[in-house]
Amino acid sequence: MSYTHQIRTDGFGAQYQTIITTYIFCMKHNMKYKYSPFITVAHNYDNDPYYTNKLEELINLQSNIENNDSTSTVIHFYDMINDFEENIDECCNSESMQFIKECFWKNKERDFFKNNKMNISIHIRRENSHDKGEAGDRANTPNSYYLNRMNEIRQKYVDKELLFHIYSQGNIEDFKDLEKEDVQFHLNEDMTPTFVGLVAADILITSPSSFSYVAALLSDGIIYAKRFWHNPKKEWIVY
Fold it and tell me: Smaller CB count within 10 Å for the chain: N or C?
């Protein structure tokens, strides 16, 4: 008997999280897992017909795990997420998570920024056209929160050449208070390099969003996490 993850229609972060947690749950309990490819993923702003193909290439699991042939039993996300989150450090240090990370990096360069600096990626979740006004508090964390984290890092790493990468949506005028000579803005950019930039950073500052939360799970860097409804790892610096 084989098992697969629940097919969802929400954003990439939530769906990738579902895939990761289901795979690790199955491996932990000696259950045969088969991978089910993406079908519909939200936030395809340009209606790109190759959007799901790009996501498959991004996570790189379709060619590395036996695919579901429609005979696998579906494990629903909320039936096993507590098992993952109550044991998050054990799960994230497992061989199963290492396999997920190895697949992710197998078709990418780890030296993503190529600048010999300490790179700090910041994900700022803001309301977008697909939210339909339902993003709520996740999209309302003020710029001052991120500025405080940036200044803490500047003070802590005074001996390093820092470069902050702000990944968000909107206009540059929305982020004037974050502008400085050590800041680069990546606004409204393609989702796939954005996600790689979050995972690849030496330090990642997350927003209350599955997108940057999952990037933090994959990251080997230092995590400054904004607490929301998913549990952090014990070594994360949590606010």
Answer: N
Looking at the structure, tell me whether residues 31 and 95 fall in a common domain.
yes
Task: List, for residues 62-97, the tens digit of each pLDDT value.
Answer: 999 999 998 999 999 888 889 999 999 999 999 999
Taking the C-alpha atoms of 115, 186, 146 and 202 in order, what is their torsion angle to the nearest 10 degrees? Answer: -30
The domain that holds 139 is classified in CATH as 3.40.50
How many C-beta atoms surround the C-beta of residue 18 within 10 A? Answer: 23
Q: Are residues 56 and 138 in the same domain?
A: no
| 227, 239 Cβ separation under 8 angstroms | yes
Find the domain containing 193 and state its range. 118-238
Give residue for tokens 């977008």: 128
Rounded to whole angstroms, what are the CA distances from 161 to 52, 113, 178, 205? 37, 13, 18, 17
In the chain, alpha helices (H): 12-28, 51-59, 77-86, 88-92, 95-106, 143-156, 191-200, 210-218
- Give domain status of residue 112, yes or no: no
Q: Is the pTM of this model over 0.90?
A: yes
